[in-house]
């Protein structure tokens, strides 16, 4: 016998409270589609009337299998539910479900709202009844519930009962401050159920202020709650909301939850979890969190030499779930601690089979170590790692050589008096003994990233002779810069992500005290890697040193 | 009656398993000092003999109030504890305490070690007895304990009993795979105690693979365990270890823990928690996690307009602890959702008092909005925000104006045939109607960051006439670059942190499709902000547009 757990996503509403996050309407529509395909039961789209973006989203509301839900607050005192214009804006969005937040903590009722405790109960009751009368599914978000329960249990309970009696499908217990610890959440949810609110009408809404948002949600489910509210990637006010990207695999893959509950999310959909998480980061221009549970690039990375060699024998030794179930991959990163078994595994990933005990292995390890000391990192620049290894193995063809380059950025007034920038790069390369000079410019008006790195990239890729066709469609899709330390002082590390016409993506690294040199090194590696893989026949080119 | 909880830090050992983390010996010594001042009971310094850095750390071991602990593994089968050279390297470090990891999961004993179950118990027993005979405090890390308990309870228990009987002070239950959920950790710890291992001899070691490392530690304490192992900032293999930076304020400030337990950490020391967390990030060249509980820049940031106005009335309305108790600060960030109360608060932080209802407020909000659409962010660039606001309020003096600049980077062979880079910048400024041309170069040999931004920074700061003395000691201390989106395409956002001779630090932002232009804009703001604050008398300079 499994119980049904309902998943309620509030990425588009509470998630938007994250510092630095502001979704556009098209982004909201795209995210709603992602959530719907994942199998959420409810998608909270925003607060109609509170801001133009949210209103526009509901005007253009996509058709979803999930129940689209509008968020708002209970009616104000002194006006009827029918005549409250804030509430009207919410119901006018026409969604099948509406979630209204209301106070349940006596202190907030008297201090923040400045109304009587009875008036607040009446507001809850009449607002919910108004939704039900309109044929909507009504949800009641009990704000500050846990603090309210601890301060005045009878009053907090009377607020829940008012919503329930008025016909609310769900009463959601919100830990608005994020301060209630899992053991308390468990006990209070159990007490609420004992007091007469059925568990299958109770939801939980937690925040991550003590790093316990996921644990608090699970504790509420353990105690009998049957709806979980959360967000993708744990977006949300302050430290964020409960992270659904973490909760989904726990609920579907891990005991004691997988056997006890079922959700609207199919196991098959979980395989898209890494993609969903990264797509949201892309929309937000955020660097994905490496250490994120299940979906992070490090979540299945085995750095310790002992772990790595055990993993090669049997993955279950150090992995609590199979990474492929959530669309993730096992990683055996390079590092000072990495043993040769790590390295052989990583080389095999790059298609390079090297025998155990081959002296080239320690030569590669030493070279990686030497470069890591200078500030390079190969954890996230697999393409540069492959080139390094091929050079050490004498398996790297010499396609071309750069003799010199020069790049100039000038900012001044143009003939019309407008201040403009001009970037120009000259690159001199030697292809098969033939010298080729290329010049390119990058103008401020370009739709793409413009400036010196773009100019260098264009000049470098302008004329590589017989290799030209192979790199024609390569483009720079991301560019990350960090000041780091290596050798005697600060250096700049540039990681470039490149893409070709077939959607293939690869990452390269460059390090220098000079940001332009570091960028150029990463650009060079990017083109070299593409040339290497573009055509097997190229492997017949003469080997470099 | 409060029980004593012991805190065991493994930042220097398990924390070093983080992808991309490799501490140097001086860094280890510095971190050990931070941990000791914080009040940790145990500091695990590493595995002597496993790598040169760890051995060097113990050779130079700092004097600590905390019990310095060396990590290793139980002796191998077929050799006595006295003759095991791996174990000898560990004990030779001469620390008062030694923690040895050993197997307790039957599958790992037979598969990974390839020895009999009895031999493994014997290895545990003799290794611990060997430590005790040397007068060391012995700790036993029971690897994969929870999985082992579920697979073969009797065997797992016999391993713990062997260690206990041999004289181990602590038996640490390790959830090595990170896959055990808090409810299971609670139940298994309770069962272990029922089976005869005293709770005040039990420790807990969790990983964050399900985002429950903190919750799992608390669940073990709830069940009776009395030692917690964790790391600063949750460093560690895969998704990290239990984060002591989160656990400390929970244990000291929050119920039901604060009243039930005492630790070796003083409440006063917690006020340095943000500093400790940031110092570690600095050592690792990591960008601090904004959403980190308690210590993140967003942990007490109130974005929602409703929250922000309630916070202004009474901070306890939306804060679960006082941010000053952990050395953090309340933040009312700018954003599209921010109301005028947010803005006035933020202006007040910059020393700008603007009356409620002043039309300048909506002018500033609109300007912030317009620039955020272009890719600017003011959440983390308070100095640029202040300049924007002052310009809108007509309170920004015009110190100087840049007429034009040009920067060139050239990479070529020098007269000796060595490939070298040369960066040169020309900046033309107008100070009080007088044109000043400055040229500066940045050489690859510089100890500081070199290259075009450095050259521009030097040229810009070379001759600002009468303002020159005020900016003499300004230096660029961090430089962050992100590709973001604004308007019609990708743009580059640069955030520069600057510092002056008095240790004052401030952040400015620049945005452009051209990385050099974006950097220059942030550099300009950095100098303007310094000039503004350097001398009150400067406020008499003529106001700009």
UniProtKB/TrEMBL annotation, chains A, B:
Keywords: Acyltransferase, Amino-acid biosynthesis, Branched-chain amino acid biosynthesis, Isoleucine biosynthesis, Transferase
Pfam families: HCS_D2, HMGL-like, LeuA_dimer
EC number: 2.3.3.21
Pathway this chain belongs to: Amino-acid biosynthesis; L-isoleucine biosynthesis; 2-oxobutanoate from pyruvate: step 1/3
Signal peptide extent: none
GO molecular function: (R)-citramalate synthase activity; 2-isopropylmalate synthase activity
Protein name: Citramalate synthase
Organism: Pseudooceanicola algae
Upper lineage: Bacteria, Pseudomonadati, Pseudomonadota, Alphaproteobacteria, Rhodobacterales
Gene responsible for this protein: cimA
């Amino acid at each position: 016998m499994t119980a049904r757990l309902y998943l309620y996503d509030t990425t588009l509403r509470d998630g938007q409270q994250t510092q630095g996050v502001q979704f556009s309407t098209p982004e909201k529509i795209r995210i709603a589609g992602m959530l719907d395909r994942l199998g959420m039961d409810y998608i909270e789209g925003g607060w109609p009337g509170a801001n133009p973006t949210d209103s526009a989203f509901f005007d253009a509301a996509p058709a979803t299998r999930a129940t689209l839900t509008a968020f708002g607050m209970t009616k104000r005192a002194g006006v009827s539910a029918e005549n409250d214009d804030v509430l009207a804006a919410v119901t006018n969005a026409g969604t099948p479900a509406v979630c209204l937040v209301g106070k349940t903590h006596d202190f907030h009722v008297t201090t923040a709202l400045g109304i009587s405790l009875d008036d607040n109960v009446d507001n809850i009751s009449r607002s919910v009844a108004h939704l039900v009368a309109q044929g909507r599914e009504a949800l009641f978000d009990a704000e500050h519930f846990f603090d309210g329960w601890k301060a005045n249990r009878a009053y907090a309970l009377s607020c829940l009962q008012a919503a329930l009696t008025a016909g609310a499908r769900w009463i959601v217990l919100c830990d608005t401050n994020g301060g209630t610890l899992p053991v308390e959440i468990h006990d209070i949810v159990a007490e609420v159920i004992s007091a007469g609110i059925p568990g299958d009408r109770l939801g939980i809404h937690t925040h991550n202020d003590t790093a316990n948002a996921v644990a608090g949600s699970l504790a509420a489910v353990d105690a009998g709650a049957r709806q979980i509210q959360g967000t993708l990637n744990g977006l949300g006010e302050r430290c964020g909301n409960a992270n659904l990207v973490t909760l989904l695999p726990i609920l579907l893959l891990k005991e004691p939850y997988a056997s006890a509950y079922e959700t609207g999310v199919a196991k098959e959909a979980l395989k898209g979890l890494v993609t969903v998480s990264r797509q949201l980061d892309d929309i937000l221009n955020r660097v994905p969190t490496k250490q994120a549970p299940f979906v992070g690039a490090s979540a299945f990375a085995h750095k310790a030499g002992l772990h790595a060699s055990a993993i090669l024998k049997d993955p279950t030794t150090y992995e609590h779930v199979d990474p492929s179930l959530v669309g993730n991959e096992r990683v055996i990163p390079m590092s000072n601690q990495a043993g040769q078994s790590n390295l052989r595994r990583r080389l095999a990933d790059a298609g390079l089979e090297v025998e155990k005990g081959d002296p080239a292995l320690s030569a590669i390890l030493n070279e990686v170590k030497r470069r890591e000391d200078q500030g390079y990192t190969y954890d996230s620049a697999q393409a540069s790692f492959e080139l390094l290894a091929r050079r050490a193995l004498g398996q790297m063809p010499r396609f071309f050589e750069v003799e010199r380059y020069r790049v100039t950025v000038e900012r001044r007034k143009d003939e019309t008096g407008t201040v403009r920038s001009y970037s120009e790069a000259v690159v001199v390369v030697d292809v098969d003994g033939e010298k080729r000079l290329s010049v390119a410019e990058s103008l401020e008006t370009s739709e793409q990233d413009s400036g010196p790195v773009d100019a260098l990239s264009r000049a470098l890729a302008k004329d590589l002779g017989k290799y030209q066709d192979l790199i024609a469609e390569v483009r720079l899709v991301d560019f990350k810069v960090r000041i780091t330390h290596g050798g005697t002082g600060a250096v700049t590390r540039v990681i470039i992500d490149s893409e070709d016409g077939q959607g293939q993506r690869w990452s390269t690294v460059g390090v220098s005290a000079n940001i332009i040199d570091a960028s150029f090194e990463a650009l060079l590696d990017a083109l070299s890697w593409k040339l290497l893989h573009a055509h097997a026949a190229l492997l017949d080119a003469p080997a470099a040193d």
